[in-house]
Amino acid sequence: NTESLQQQDNQHYLHPFSDHKSLREQGARMIVKADGVYIWDSDGNKILDGMAGLWCTNIGYGQKSLANVAFEQMNELPYYNSFFQCAHPPAVELAKEIAELAPPHMNQVFFTGSGSESNDTVLRMVRHYWNLKGKPEKFTIIGRHNGYHGSTVAGASLGGMKPMHQQGGLPIPGIHHIPQPYWFGEGGDLSPEEFGIQAAQELEKAIQDIGEDKVAAFIAEPIQGAGGVVIPPDTYWPEIKKILAKHDILLIVDEVICGFGRTGEWFGSQYFGLEPDFMPIAKGLTSGYIPMGGVIVSDRVAGVFEQEGGEFYHGYTYSGHPVAAAVARENIRLIKEKGLVEYVKNDIGPYLQQAWKTLGDHPLVGETRGLGLLAALEVVQEKEGRVRFDSDLDVGGMCRNTSVSNGLVMRAVGDTLIISPPMIISRDEVDELITKARKTLDLTMESLKQ
Ligand code: PLP
Q: Is ipTM strictly over 0.95?
């Protein structure tokens, strides 16, 4: 039962991304089963999972064929590595299938166990590439404030989450951060278009400060996820592309959230017309059913690795794990069979966005925004002048807790509320999500008045 599970949890389980003191006081919500877009807790509450777990169960819960292929693969070949000139069919087939979905100039995949490992891999590949090109001084990678690229030492360093840096001497050397293109929070009186150019020019400024010959790469999410579903103004990416081309700097587009359909394209890079050198992937690759990540690499980079030779001293025991690869293949097959990417682009994405926008008339809402199946709203004290609540009140946290008690998982980043539901969500389920989100706002407003 819930109480005994919570007791054991308190005694033995150190949770990721948790305040252990308050967790122990409140007790964790025990999630015991899931189906479609719903999860159930150990008290029998049915909750609409507006976040697809951690932005990952794109295919939804309860897809039995994923379990079946895992079972079959475990019986056939449960494990083998791809170090030292070995390979196995599931990883080889998966790499080919991913390359077919990626932009045409990206045809090789390096497998990892998670998004964080993918970004560690990227950092090492970038430096390997410039070493092979005879330019080891091209060493610095530029990331963005509030970017999230994982929790390993390199991932957290590439990311721009201040609290993560403050807890342990991060970032590691050779990483620099520039402001994010967050118009609602930082745009002031500029139009979104003007602000997009200004935000992109921060990259130019940083390159001038550091020196073009020392900058190796720029890393960014197509849409910043954990930073608050920050959708860049239309002018941002085209300007960034120009700057990178001018200075011969590699582009890393972190597709861990946007990849596998969330924007209505297979990858966010395709939505924004980007030509990355690296695309770290994870999450939607297996819809979270089993851990797996990877880095999709451009022909120009992979070509240098091949021409120059020399071992790349990097890899994981579980790189290309056969069971994970089999599950990923089945997941991709299902996404294709169900036409989910097109569904997000032409049907459920626009439907959700139009419904989400209606929340903008609520007194607590300063802005709604979204794209595909990602959306955010800004909770404000006063709409005029975008006045925020005192951060000590943690109104975002209040909304998140009210929402889950009311049957909807939403995430809070400060006072920004976020959703990223499974791609199989129906119109009726979107309606339910919106009704519950509005109720969350109403209930929060009532408590704030008390
Ligand atoms: N990159 C992005 C954009 C992410 O959102 C995340 C996780 O949320 C990661 C990397 C890290 O992935 P993982 O948690 O699988 O290590």
A: yes
